[in-house]
Design brief:
About 40% of the residues lie in helices and about 5% in strands. The protein is mostly helical. It has a 3-stranded antiparallel beta sheet with strand order 1-2-3. This is lysozyme.
Length: about 160
């Protein structure tokens, strides 16, 4: 019985280690250093807003859709078009396995989000359309040290 409990604890612990939930400013700084600010004309604040509403900055977020596709990772990238899983994958536009979007290292997810954004822009994300589009998203990066300096600082 003790061996079974230890085995369960090991697997639960392994699953927890792989997931990562970023703090807002930490995520904003990582996105900025990854070249996401103004990538595909999407502001850094929009990216941070989008991922807040898509996954709450959780790299292991996974949600099933009505069409039997699944959204994966911090950007909630859809399996039908962008990655390969056991579901109704068709295009695999990012040329990756969907599970690669669930690791605590968001590099693959960021690279795939860039592919999605190049092709469809921010409108590819429902969370962005619902919560960020046309709204003041500056609070999502406020106080993070990633804001663009105002013109008056250059005088």
């Amino acid at each position: 019985m003790l061996k079974l409990q230890l085995l369960v604890l090991f697997f639960v612990g392994a699953a927890v280690v792989q997931a990562r939930v970023y703090e807002r400013c930490e995520w904003a700084r990582l996105l900025k250093s990854s070249g996401m600010d103004q990538f595909a004309k999407i502001s850094l604040a929009d990216w941070v807003c989008m991922t807040k509403w898509e996954s709450s900055y959780n790299t292991s977020a996974k949600n099933r859709n009505r069409n039997n596709s699944t959204d994966y990772g911090i950007f909630q990238i859809n399996s039908k078009w962008w990655c390969k899983d056991d579901g109704p994958s068709k295009a695999n536009g990012c040329n990756i396995m969907c599970t690669a979007l669930l690791t605590d290292d968001p590099t693959v997810a960021i690279n795939c989000a860039k592919i999605v954004a190049k092709q469809q822009g921010a409108k590819a994300w429902v969370g962005w359309k619902t919560h960020c589009e046309g709204k003041d998203v500056s609070p999502y990066i406020a106080g993070c040290g990633v804001e663009m300096p105002s013109d008056s600082n250059f005088l």
